[in-house]
User: Fold this.
Amino acid sequence: MDSATASEPPREPNHEDYRWTLVTLKVQDKVYRVPRHGFTRYSGVFETMFTLPQGDGPIEGRSDDNPIVLPSCTTEEFESLLSVLYQTAPQLESITLSKERWIHILKLSTFWDMEQVRRLSIKEISATNIGPIEKVQLAREFKIPNMLLEGYLEIIRSWGEVGLSLDDIGIGLGWESAARLTSLAGQYGFRDFPEVKAELFSGYCTECSVPCTWNWLSRSFGLTKENREEVMNEQCHHCQASFQLLSVSLHPIVGEPDLEIATKEAFKAELESIS
Assistant:
């Protein structure tokens, strides 16, 4: 037996999770060298790409001189995705990014079949201050039926509010959708509120228990979209105590389940096309 071979120390075993292979990627004019596992873990597209047989020439992705070129995105979009795949510092809380960056991540995770990352981006986008028109536009582009329905419902609920005109809806979503939303808002939305009248009956003071009589007094409550609740206070003629007699609130006549069912039916074909 060769003495040199016999004296060689045994090879240390490799850790399966923490021995990473780097890959070089190019987006626009920038080159990135990152651990390959970040892409293969979340994307079947990249897992297939990295296992394809290579030709006789230099292997793509092994060096800065021969990177894998990704033409389907911008550097800004790609770096937004990298910030999720490779966090540069420990984070015990959820990742904090702007709405725009989460939209970048939604775009690329959809394109590259990163389902787990896509679900995260949808959740985070929904938690931002995204408006209903933009929500519908994103849902259409990236095929998100739940977000599409949410956007339509928000438009109907906020019908007539400042900042959301019929022109905005028609230009942003198309006039066919605007017509359907107009019809739904007419049936289920809150545009014109009738005056609510409350009748008061005889009763007793809550402080001194002396009978306090208001013989069928009536009062009109001018409830509006901005003023959805009003309280009537009265004063006892005996002890002068002030107490609440009645509180009137404005509620939709049609329940929310009915509105959701009607909206699903009105946009049934579109919802099915992106499911």
Notes: DSSP finds twelve helices and nine strands in the chain.
